[in-house]
Amino acid sequence: MMCVGAHPDDECFAFGGALATAADRGIETYVLCLTDGQAATYRGEAASGEALGKIRRDEFAASCKVLGVTHHELMDYQDGRLEFVDFSKAAGRLVERMRRFKPDVVITFGGDGGLNTHNDHMIVSALTTSAFHWAGRAKRYPDLATPFQPRRLFYATANFFIPDRPVPLPSPWTVKLDIRSVQQRKAEAFRNHPSQGPVMETTRLLFEQYGSEELYTLIATEGMHAAKLSDDLFEGLKES
Predict the structure, then answer these.
(1) I need a surface site. Which of 2, 109, 157, 187 has the fewest CB within 10 A?
(2) Residue 72 maps to a domain
C-alpha cells in the first residue's frame, strides 16, 4: 500500500489506522509526504522555517516508525505552495515511485482537501490520482521505470467536521475501516508530532468520539462493478 500526503502528521491524522492495520497484517507500506511542513501555523520552538522543517522531518520519521511503516520518504516541495508546482513533473515523480514500489492499493486525500480543506491536500489528491492512472500507461513517462498499474485508489473521507473550519464537501464512503485494534497506536504516532500539539488538543474530543474508524471512498479499481460497502481496503486481493 502506498499513502501520499502533503505534510508531516498527515500520515497519522488522516491515514494512521489504515497504515497500522496494514502493518499488522504483514502488508508492505510506503508513505510519501510532499513537503516538510515549514508553513505550519503551529511552529513549536522553531526559530525559522528551516528549523521547523528539520523538526517536522524528524517527527514524521518517528510517527512512521510507530505506525509500522515499511518505507517513508519526505520530498522537497514547498509547504503551502503545491498549487504552483509543475504538475506534469510532480506527477511524474509519483509515477516513478509507484512503478518501483508496485502498490496494490493507493490511499490519499480527496479533492475536498480533507477535514481542514487544505489547498495542498487538494493538489496531492489531483497529483496522486493522475499518477495512479498514468503509472500503468506505457506512453506516459516512458523513461521512468517499467509501467505498473496499481489496482485500487481510495480517498480518505469523514463523517464529521471540525468546528469553526470551512466545511468540506466529502465523498460518500465505501469502506468503513475498524481501527480499534490500533487506535492507541495512531494516537501515539500523532503524539510524535509535538510541534503540532495545538492541533492534537483542538481535535482530541472529535477523535475520542469518532476515532475508532476511518472512512475511505473507492475511486478507481480494475474491472467494472457497482459500488458496495466494505470493511477492508484489500478485500479480495491476495496478501503477500
Answers:
(1) 187
(2) yes
